[in-house]
Amino acid sequence: MTASDLEQFAAWIEELIRRRGFDIDSPRGGGKSRLADEAGVHRAAITRLLQRQSMPDLETTRRLAHVLDVPVRDMLIRSGRLTEDDLPLPQVAEAPPRDAGEGRRLTLEEAAAGLGVPPEQREMFMKVAGQFLPAAPARRAPLAKE
Fold first, then answer.
1. Which end of the chain is less congested by CB atoms within 10 angstroms, N or C?
2. Is residue 100 within 8 Å of 110, Cβ to Cβ?
């Protein structure tokens, strides 16, 4: 990573931070502190980045990406740490016909197959991906009569 990588990344993220409504320009604006709080990182990490002193570590990058609503992939490529070749996008599978299950969600098995997850890794994919699915509404237990 070069000083130029850091400068380009910091300039890009600085503009992104402003567009997301964080006031990082005025000393009392509180934008750096608010961003750090929302991302769950130290304010010093934000300050060092904006002052072009250091690139955030991977966990800080991941947390900033979440708060700034940017894919981690984009953050890593913009930072110069990885290239698009290092993080290729999955090939998009051909869409099923519109009448085949319109309104129906893909199963995790279908998603794994469509994304090209190797068969030996599908069980792990389904366990991990399943954690991000909304839980089915919990059924309320009947209240005991007093």
1. C
2. no
Residues 129, 132: Cα–Cα separation, whole Å: 6
Give this prediction's pTM. 0.59
Residue 37 falls in which region: left (phi positive, over 0), alpha (psi -120 to 50) or beta: alpha
Please report, to the nearest 10 degrees, the dihedral formed by the alpha carbons of residues 26, 29, 33, 35 taken in order: -90
Do residues 38 and 66 lie in contact, with contact meaning Cβ atoms separated by under 8 Å? Answer: no
State whether the Cα torsion 41-42-47-49 is positive or negative.
Answer: negative
Per CATH, the number for 3-78 is 1.10.260.40
Q: Give the whole-angstrom CA distance, residue 114 versus residue 110.
A: 6
pLDDT digits (tens, 9 = 90+) for 24-46: 988 787 899 999 999 999 999 99
Cα–Cα distance measured from residue 10 to residue 3, given in angstroms and rounded to the nearest whole number: 10
For CATH 1.10.260.40, the residue range(s) in the chain are 3-78
The stretches in the chain having pLDDT less than 50 are 137-141, 146
Let me know: does 113 contact 43? Beta carbons within 8 Å: no
